Amino acid sequence: MDATHAPGLRSWVESANVPGHDFPIQNLPLGVFSTPGSRPRGGVAIGDMVLDIAAALAAGRLSGAAAEAAAEPTLNRLMSYGQDAAAELRARLSALLAEGAEPLPDLLHPQSAVTMHLPVEVRNFSDFMASRPHCERLGRARNRDNPLPPAFHHLPVAYHSRASSVRPSGTPLRRPWGQFQRDGAVVFAPTEALDFELELAIWIAEENVLGEPTPISAADRRIFGIGLLNDWSARDIQRFEMPPLGPFLSKSVMTSVSPWVVTMQAMAPFMAPLPPRAAGDPPCPAHLHSSRPDAMRITMRAAIQTPRMAAAGIAPHVVTEAPFEEMYWSAAQMVAHHTSNGCNLLPGDLLGSGTVSGSRPGQEACLAELLLRGPIILPSGETRRFLEDGDCVIFTARAEAPGAVPIGFGECRGSVLPAAAWPVSEEG
Amino acid sequence: MDATHAPGLRSWVESANVPGHDFPIQNLPLGVFSTPGSRPRGGVAIGDMVLDIAAALAAGRLSGAAAEAAAEPTLNRLMSYGQDAAAELRARLSALLAEGAEPLPDLLHPQSAVTMHLPVEVRNFSDFMASRPHCERLGRARNRDNPLPPAFHHLPVAYHSRASSVRPSGTPLRRPWGQFQRDGAVVFAPTEALDFELELAIWIAEENVLGEPTPISAADRRIFGIGLLNDWSARDIQRFEMPPLGPFLSKSVMTSVSPWVVTMQAMAPFMAPLPPRAAGDPPCPAHLHSSRPDAMRITMRAAIQTPRMAAAGIAPHVVTEAPFEEMYWSAAQMVAHHTSNGCNLLPGDLLGSGTVSGSRPGQEACLAELLLRGPIILPSGETRRFLEDGDCVIFTARAEAPGAVPIGFGECRGSVLPAAAWPVSEEG
């Protein structure tokens, strides 16, 4: 743990020093923001404020290739530079914002006054399935005695997902139409089983040439940072379309990500050993094995607020509190697996961790799993099996470890808009 | 059929007038090329030559937004303009290259002297499964009596595939490592079941806003053009990783596309009605139904040349000759389905048609299907179950219809390089 993590370190931005804030000076996540009438550009979250990196460069308070890349309208170039550049930038930002440095209020914007954008141009998005309880709970419907996919213990199971429909937190989701089975017939109708999946977003650093794997020994260096991801899922559409090629339109409706990228430098105090494999599990394959502490001590939460709750001033209700630390496969193992066939990962590519369900009740990280214990009962007295129009889903998370100042991730939120009328005449 | 298709139309580029040439003046496919020491830019294939669109603009022989977009290092902007722009450009190119117009040899480069590049920056790639015989042959291993996926007759089954590993014809494929089952154990080794899949590449025009489907009535306008696509597949890796999320590393090794984009304007004479559904099939869903002639009269061929054949001067051996016209779902239906959940397709996005297998012997469009009748016997006396190191796979195709000058697609080719040694120490 270097000086940028020191628990006593405080910022001249007072809100950053409030205990329990998501964005103390020990965090310094990067994102892309705009103010009214200005173009999107890079910023760093500090307390309730955003430091304008382009303004800091113009004022001579920052310099160098990493800061210049961090000021751009996307962070792809910064991510192409890799972790050393991110570490150097972090040290400069920490010095600039630390208590004792000259306060520079002109470089700040209140977070409440800015619009946050996608932090990168997402070129490719792959989604994993790395929680054993998630797979077991949902797999039991298919095969009671053998609920896990055959490859589960051998590799982090994943599929290519859709890059074009990734959107930043706050973008509403239009309930999609799709085909599914209802009362024995196949219908084309608005989904009746709209779900969220609470996941971690993993942002890729650097690029490997097609045909050249990134071995597990170097795979941690390919992770630039992390955030929150809602892999919105239409379960009825998914069930019908999935065999044998996997999920398609059930997932490409939209994927929401939180706008702040928490760097792996900020995550250093929160890394932990992977949980040991259970007695009966096969050993981890050698090309995916690492003794690095690649697990992350993050508690992730999903909350729901219905329109009636909002109208009554009832706060979002936490329906899930899940431990990312218990995931069966690490983000580094996902990178090593993904590139093991030579597939090239590009700077700013996005990996989804898969639904972060824990093994205990209350740790089910999607409605399909929660529903196995019955519909959710909300503080308004309403119940939910799946999401209804107007419902808002809010993800938050917190990394905590002994001796470290906890950090947060901001929010990943989205509301459900009613389905549109089917747009047009159907005969071409 | 407009004047640009007239069978009597000839070009001042003599090689374009050779009967049976892939690139007569009735074709005029677009691509991106470079000459030694120069930057990639747009061109049009005419006979054995490439017309340099940037040079034609500079010489005042072409003008306008479409021609300017077609001169860029990728065709994405031209594709964003849609089919009307492509039609206008086609008319100008046809007039410029027609017999009787002033010959402009300074604007031409021999195709043999240029390097072809990817025609677009591929942002998203989705791969379909639209041949009933392909699904039936390979599905019988899973379920003898019910080999088709449950959704097959209701929608064109598809999965999101990998955009970053799409490469132009001629790029060699490095045999990938992966995990698969061998003699009851899971091993990590170079694939032992490397296959090709003969597919059509479908290039998307224009963009629909996320949440706004493109109805079937407008879906044909979203197809800019077509080419050939080899969806290289590692069958052993695929079999192990596929349940339940679909193919992943078995497909993202590499995908090859032919460099020339045959526009839908060039395809006009070769459009035909979709084959009628069989008596027992459910009807086509209304939102995917069209009476437009959206099928395409294309015969597609896959050939193999082993190193021994090449050394002995034996030509590539055609192992498949498949009728694209028989595909169960049209490209327009793929677009309508893909956007039916509101998913946004971007200009230059790539759709793969899926393996174009016909129902008759000799029309199996991948080795996994061909192998059901036994190993292939090559003219050299060699046999093949799957591809071996050094083997070259060459796709060609031809659109033909009564009264129209046939057109071709050029080649989509790739050779197999031996697997690399596993790169590095495995402990992180």
Would you give the CATH topology of the largest domain in chain A? Fumarylacetoacetate hydrolase, domain 2
Number of helices of chain A: 11
Write out the CATH superfamily name of the largest domain in chain A: Fumarylacetoacetase-like, C-terminal domain
Largest interface: A-B, 83 and 83 residues
- Class inferred from helices and paired strands of chain A: alpha+beta
Strand content of chain A: 25-35%
Q: Mean pLDDT score of chain A, rounded?
A: 97
Number of strands of chain A: 27
CATH hierarchy class name of the largest domain in chain A: Alpha Beta
What oligomeric state is this?
A: homodimer
Summarize the biggest pleated sheet of chain A: 8 strands, mixed
Q: Describe the global form of chain A.
A: globular
Return residue spans of chain A where pLDDT drops below 50 for at least 5 consecutive residues. none
What is the helix fraction of residues of chain A, given as a range?
Answer: 10-25%
CATH architecture annotation of the largest domain in chain A: Alpha-Beta Complex
Give the tally of structural domains of chain A: 2
First-to-last CA distance of chain A: 63 Å
Radius of gyration of chain A: 22 Å
Task: Explain the overall architecture.
The structure is a homodimer. Chain A has eleven helices and 27 strands. In chain A, a hairpin with a 2-residue loop joins strand 10 and strand 11 (about 185-190). Chain A is about 15% helix and about 25% strand. Chain A is an alpha+beta fold. The radius of gyration of chain A is 22 Å and the shape is globular. The termini of chain A are far apart. Chain A has helices spanning about 55-60, 65-70, 75-80, 85-95, 130-140, 215-220, 235-240, 265, 305-310, 330-340, 365-370, and strands spanning about 30-35, 40-45, 50, 110, 115, 125-130, 155-160, 165-170, 175, 175-180, 185-190, 195, 200-205, 225-230, 235, 255, 260-265, 270, 295, 300-305, 315-325, 350, 375, 385, 390-400, 405-410, 410-415. The first copy, chain A, has two domains: about 5-115, SH3 type barrels (Roll); about 125-415, Fumarylacetoacetate hydrolase, domain 2, CATH 3.90.850. The mean pLDDT of chain A is about 95. In chain A, strands 6, 7, 8, 13, 14, 16, 17 and 22 form an eight-stranded mixed sheet that branches. In chain A, strands 9, 20, 21, 25, 26 and 27 form a six-stranded mixed sheet that branches. A five-stranded antiparallel sheet of chain A has the order 4-3-2-1-5. In chain A, about 55% of the residues are buried. Chains A and B meet through strand 7, strand 10, helix 6, helix 7 and helix 10 of A and strand 7, strand 10, helix 6, helix 7 and helix 10 of B.
